[in-house]
Amino acid sequence: MSSIINSFVHHIDEQQLNVHSVRVLQKGVTIGAWDRTGDMRRLQHSVSKSFTCMAIGLALDEGTLTLESKLGDYFTSPTPASHLTAFPPADLTLYDLLRMSSGHDVPVLWAEERATLPEKDWAKYYMSLPLDRVPGETFTYSSADTFMISAMFQAATGQTVKNYLIPRLFEPLGITNVEWETSPLGITLGCAGLQLTNEELGRFGQLLLQEGHWNGKQLIPAEWIRLATTQQIPTPGDGDWGQGYGYQFWRCSHNAYRADGANGQLCVVLPELESVVAINSDEQNMQAILDNVWSDILPILEGNI
User: How far apart are CA 38 and CA 268, in angstroms?
Assistant: First the structure.
């Protein structure tokens, strides 16, 4: 085990935090690595959202979509939903969806609902639900918003997010045989469902740190990564969940940002320290994991600059 993460591993074990794998990269080099039982592909949950964001950045660059593109450009709102509210889902823009500001008080299409929903056309279901308030003003975390981003992308490009990203992102990063769940109608889930090893997650973090540049090629527009990882809307949470939200990325304390997924999938990028911390876990107390990153790993990274 690398000395840079000795203290981190000691403390997560002491606190009984079920972390599986850790990778620490600085200046493009892996300086710390630890696996409890081996680095295997695991479900990344909402880390998937940040990959979907990369597809959107490319579509915007190609002119296939704009931030002002509306759901109503691609999907119809079944009646009577559009008559029940002054805020029909058809008016939601890609910008609203990227910032998680769609205007639902109670988000829909959570994993439990997706598993039991009689309607197999999830986009149709989303469009049938009136919004509770004016969109674009308030953050409400919603996996359904990201699914609709994926659905809009597929409607605009004719390709699934997964298939589109294979030659443009996954293959250049050396990520092969990509597994990513789909809806019953074959839309890449977008909000969840992607499987990665922790080493692969670390490569994604390094790509973000390099603002989309990889092995001499610009895979993702640098400006898009800067926008996506900058606060676009404030968030009401505590700790690292209260630092604001970008486009499918969370802001962190210490001027960092992250992709994160339920139960402790974390890809933390610290631009000022030229560093990435990738973590795969099965642990609900994600703030405790991050607290240990800040207390045990951050000072070492700072000392190396």
Answer: 21
Judged against a pLDDT cut of 60, whether residue 80 lies above it is answered with no
Please, how many CA atoms are within 13 Å of residue 294, restricted to the half-sphere of its CB? 14
Residues 6 or more apart whose Cβ sits within 8 Å of residue 116: none
Digit-coded pLDDT (tens) for 227-236: 999 999 999 9
Q: Is the peptide bond before 80 cis (omega within 30 degrees of 0)?
A: yes
Q: Report the amino acid identity of residue 45.
A: H
pLDDT in tens, 142-194: 999 999 999 999 999 999 999 999 999 999 999 999 999 999 999 999 999 99
Distances (CA, A) of 36 to 13, 84, 262: 10, 52, 19
In terms of C-beta distances under 8 Å and separation of at least 24 residues, what long-range contacts does 291-296 make, across chains too?
Answer: 291/239, 292/8, 292/11, 292/12, 292/15, 292/17, 293/8, 293/266, 293/268, 294/253, 294/254, 295/11, 296/5, 296/7, 296/8, 296/11
Q: Is the per-residue pLDDT at 85 higher than 80?
A: no
CA distance 279 to 267: 6
pLDDT at position 210, please?
98
In a 3-state reduction of DSSP, which class is residue 32? strand
CA–CA gap between residue 294 and residue 176 (Å, rounded): 32
Distance CA 260, CA 147 (A): 16
